Structure to design on (389 residues):
């Protein structure tokens, strides 16, 4: 294990030329980042997760109930052993050929079977109340951490002149504010990474998983080799738009559509301007060019910038989805679904279950019982974005 650790923390990889870990020893005059500091993030991530559970139960839930948000989940599908076996063992989205076969086998019309599968999929989705509670927790944390970041960064020289991130690097003392900011952000993203497997699964699960991994790696790498100054700028830029995104979701779940649309528009403008404007022009410029000029490249420098570039690619993907969403919202004059967190909406697919009416054969589908149009409630389901059926 000692050999593995010595190989992993190789000075020639992590640090600039002629710099050793001994140069980062704490003294009476200055404190420097230590890799051991990050061990605190794991138990703190667990504490944050427990705080989230308490927050959602005793703060977010009463707020949701006060806003008349329903606690009940989607309607349950009629029990049917044959369809349940297909759903659990074969596919949750049967194709046309399989639907026709099931229709003959059960003597149900195809539309009824389609609705059964929609309702059965929706049974695995959380209630609107649960989604509101999750969004309120994230909104509260993002608002707090963004406010904290802005308050202490406005007093720092590197906020106004990014070249200050590299002057006297890597011999830059670590302040208490930067240490607290880093440990809290790292703990929160660790808790998000773990909770992805317990929260309801979104369509962008893999993208968000990669985003969390890249973020955790960036926070860890930048702290260990003392790129903390530029790291604080990266975190602050990312937190800004997330506050409005979660606020828009809460407005949607509370059925405040006008407020939801307004918040989504503000989110879209801030996201695109910060992630496609400020981030590449301000952050990537200093990490790629100013640092090259003042410090020069070294192995972990390339890894750090590779991860920052990966984040920029994810920003571009999400920006595309947001623009597509805004275009559809303008066309349809409403916002009803978040492409960035696109999951099947229980409200979009809640039709009358087969249990509430007599099943019809495929020959009776022309009498109108199997042709009722799908309705939506016109509100966000996974966050702000346009209608999709």
């Amino acid at each position: 294990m000692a050999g593995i650790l010595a190989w992993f923390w190789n000075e020639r990889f992590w640090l600039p030329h002629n710099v050793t870990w001994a140069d980062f020893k704490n003294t009476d005059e200055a404190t420097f980042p230590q890799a051991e500091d990050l061990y605190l993030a794991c138990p703190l991530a667990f504490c944050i997760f427990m705080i989230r559970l308490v927050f959602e139960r005793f703060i977010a839930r009463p707020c949701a109930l006060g806003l008349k948000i329903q606690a009940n989940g989607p309607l349950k599908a009629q029990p049917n052993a044959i369809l349940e076996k297909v759903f659990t063992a074969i596919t949750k989205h049967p194709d046309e050929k399989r639907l026709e076969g099931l229709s003959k086998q059960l003597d149900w019309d195809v539309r009824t079977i389609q609705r059964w599968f929609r309702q059965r999929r929706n049974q695995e989705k959380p209630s609107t109340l649960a989604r509101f509670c999750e969004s309120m927790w994230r909104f509260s944390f993002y608002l707090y951490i963004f406010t904290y970041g802005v308050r202490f960064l406005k007093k720092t020289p590197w906020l106004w002149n990014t070249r200050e991130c590299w002057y006297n690097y890597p011999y830059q003392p670590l302040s208490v504010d930067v240490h607290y900011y880093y440990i809290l952000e790292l703990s929160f993203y660790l808790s998000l990474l773990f909770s992805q497997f317990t929260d309801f699964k979104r369509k962008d699960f893999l993208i968000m998983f990669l985003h969390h991994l890249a973020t955790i790696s960036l926070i860890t790498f930048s702290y260990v080799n003392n790129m903390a100054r530029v790291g604080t700028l990266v975190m602050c830029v990312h937190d800004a738009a997330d506050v409005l995104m979660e606020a828009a979701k809460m407005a949607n779940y509370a059925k405040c559509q006008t407020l939801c649309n307004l918040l989504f528009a503000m989110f879209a403008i801030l996201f695109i301007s910060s992630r496609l404007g400020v981030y590449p022009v301000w952050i990537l410029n200093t990490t790629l060019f100013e640092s090259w000029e003042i410090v020069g490249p070294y192995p972990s420098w390339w890894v750090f910038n590779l991860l920052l570039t990966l984040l920029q690619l994810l920003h571009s993907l999400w920006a595309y989805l947001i623009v597509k969403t805004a275009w559809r919202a303008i066309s349809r004059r409403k916002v009803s679904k978040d492409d960035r967190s696109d999951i099947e909406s229980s409200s979009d697919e809640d039709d009358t279950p087969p249990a509430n009416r007599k099943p019809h054969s495929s020959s009776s589908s022309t009498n109108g019982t199997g042709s009722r149009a799908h309705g939506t409630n016109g509100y966000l389901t996974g966050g702000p974005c346009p209608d999709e059926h």
Q: What stands out?
A: Confidence is low (pLDDT under 50) at residues 339-389. The CA atoms of residues 245 and 362 lie 44 Å apart. The first helix runs from residue 2 to 8. DSSP finds 14 helices and no strands in the chain.
